[in-house]
Design a protein that fits this description.
The protein is mostly helical. The chain has one domain. It has 5 helices and no strands. Helix 1 packs antiparallel against helix 2 and helix 2 runs antiparallel to helix 3. The longest helix has 22 residues.
Length: 96
């Protein structure tokens, strides 16, 4: 029996994937297969919002060279901080 594909609809997860994809673009070096694989896996995860695609992207990230992972992580943290600052404070009524 065929089940419909599950989709991720958690905004925080999707935002994290977007930030990581942008960070990979910032650190991208043409010719490095692991970075291209990671970039493609993240783009697929964003398109499909599928848990399997997200797991594949995580697996691709774990295979990237440690120095590139650190560079990507640095970019991602910077981008997340910028997004958080531009979002402004959470209104009291929005927290309830």
């Amino acid at each position: 029996m065929h089940r419909p594909a599950a989709h991720i609809d958690d905004d925080a997860t999707l935002c994290s994937i977007e930030i990581l994809a942008e960070a990979v673009e910032m650190a991208f070096v043409p010719g490095i297969l692991e970075l291209r694989t990671l970039r493609d896996a993240l783009q697929d995860a964003l398109r499909s919002n599928s848990p399997d695609a997200i797991r594949l992207a995580y697996s691709a990230f774990s295979r990237v060279d440690r120095d590139f992972r650190q560079r990507i992580s640095h970019h991602a943290l910077s981008l997340a901080n910028i997004r958080r600052q531009s979002a402004g404070p959470i209104r009291q009524s929005a927290r309830r």
